[in-house]
From TrEMBL:
<feature type="transmembrane region" description="Helical">
    <location>
        <begin position="246"/>
        <end position="266"/>
    </location>
</feature>
<feature type="transmembrane region" description="Helical">
    <location>
        <begin position="208"/>
        <end position="234"/>
    </location>
</feature>
<feature type="transmembrane region" description="Helical">
    <location>
        <begin position="49"/>
        <end position="70"/>
    </location>
</feature>
<feature type="transmembrane region" description="Helical">
    <location>
        <begin position="131"/>
        <end position="153"/>
    </location>
</feature>
<feature type="transmembrane region" description="Helical">
    <location>
        <begin position="12"/>
        <end position="37"/>
    </location>
</feature>
<keyword id="KW-0472">Membrane</keyword>
<feature type="region of interest" description="Disordered">
    <location>
        <begin position="333"/>
        <end position="352"/>
    </location>
</feature>
<keyword id="KW-0812">Transmembrane</keyword>
<feature type="transmembrane region" description="Helical">
    <location>
        <begin position="173"/>
        <end position="196"/>
    </location>
</feature>
<keyword id="KW-1133">Transmembrane helix</keyword>
<feature type="compositionally biased region" description="Basic and acidic residues">
    <location>
        <begin position="333"/>
        <end position="344"/>
    </location>
</feature>
<protein>
    <submittedName>
        <fullName>Uncharacterized protein</fullName>
    </submittedName>
</protein>
């Protein structure tokens, strides 16, 4: 059964429309990230490293959407009367604007993948062994990405991104990037599920923690990459509808992870708070009082001032804490009084 495809010019127009929507989300998220990292920061100093990464990804995303609009205007307005029309213009991969766009996409993708790997590194307790394979995959993606950019710049005779020499570079890049995100997503999701289940069981695994898991692991980006790779290897022009918006997702997903880390809403923070609450045990609210009845009177003692004895492990230690109570026989007391009176009476008779 043949798969129905759309023309290249229509695919590119739909791709730019979707990319602008994602760019609007990227703008809101970027300024929210700056507000959290700079204005409402929880550290004495601004984390220049995270701020620099967020600014760099936003700048690359902005340049990416700007180049997309430039190609849109050139293809549909300036060069629309050229032989082949807009479809021929968009199929030429060696146009400088397209080469620059591919290069920016590669750089932003590498930065985004590195942020996801960094999150995996932190989630697994700073264990580099768990991140060895993702790091190698990121390095492979960088090599294929920059190689793809150079090949696009020199490939003036290729008028399709689905040409066989280009498929080798594109396929390698997309596959390595997908493998990186699938591996990291699996590692982070597994660790998150294990930590939350260890702390409170499935009862504490609420829906908002599932959302945190999805964002923190970069699962959104992985799903988009699966669609991209599938459409590309099928040779469909619909591939562009996913490819261009991914240029914004490469900045959105890492920025969301940075915001979670700045707001202390990551898995490590949630698990730490749950562990502390379990260790502290039951607490009483301030202002609540307990009434203690005694033999003399009834008085109120604030719970904040009450001292609870520690647990006693042995019976001998418990015996030393329990106060000793002596019970006396009333008949024995009466016999003792009669004996004393008899002795006093005998003494008085002798004196007389």
């Amino acid at each position: 059964m043949a798969v129905t495809d759309i023309s290249l010019d229509r695919a590119y127009l739909a791709a730019i429309w979707l990319e602008t929507l994602f760019y609007g989300m990227n703008i809101v998220l970027f300024f929210s990230c700056m507000f959290v990292l700079v204005v409402r920061r929880r550290t004495p100093r601004v984390n220049t490293f995270l701020v620099g990464i967020a600014v760099a990804m936003f700048c690359f995303s902005t340049c990416h959407v700007f180049l997309g609009f430039y190609r849109l205007i050139m293809g549909f307005i300036v060069l629309r009367d050229q032989p082949g029309g807009p479809a021929a213009f968009f199929s030429d991969v060696s146009i400088p604007a397209n080469v620059a766009k591919v290069g920016l996409h590669t750089v932003n993708s590498i930065i985004g993948d590195s942020v996801v790997v960094w999150r995996c590194f932190l989630v697994w307790g700073r264990d580099w062994k768990m991140c060895a394979i993702p790091i190698l995959l990121v390095c492979g993606s960088a090599i294929c990405g920059f190689g793809q950019t150079v090949f696009f710049a020199r490939g003036q005779r290729y008028h399709s991104a689905f040409a066989h020499p280009l498929v080798l570079w594109n396929g390698s890049l997309f596959s390595l990037s997908l493998a990186t995100n699938v591996v990291v997503t699996g590692l982070v999701a597994l660790r998150v599920w294990y930590m939350l289940r260890l702390c409170g069981g499935t009862a504490n695994f609420r829906y908002w923690r599932v959302l945190v898991t999805v964002v923190e692991s970069g699962m959104i980006y992985s799903v988009a990459l699966i669609c991209e790779v599938t459409l590309y290897f099928l040779g469909l022009n619909s591939f562009y509808i996913v490819y261009d918006p991914i240029g914004q997702l490469t900045g959105i997903v890492p920025t969301m992870i940075i915001v979670l880390a700045a707001l202390e809403m990551t898995t490590n923070d949630i698990t730490s708070r749950m562990t502390k609450s379990q260790r502290s045990g039951p607490r009483f609210r301030s202002g609540i009082t307990a009434t203690t009845a005694t033999t003399d009177e009834t008085h109120t003692i604030p719970l904040d001032t009450m001292v609870f004895a520690d647990g006693v492990s042995t019976f001998r230690e418990r015996k030393t804490i329990i106060p000793t109570v002596t019970f006396e026989d009333p008949h024995r007391q009466t016999d003792t009084l009669d004996l004393k009176r008899a002795e006093q009476g005998g003494d008085g008779a002798g004196d007389v």
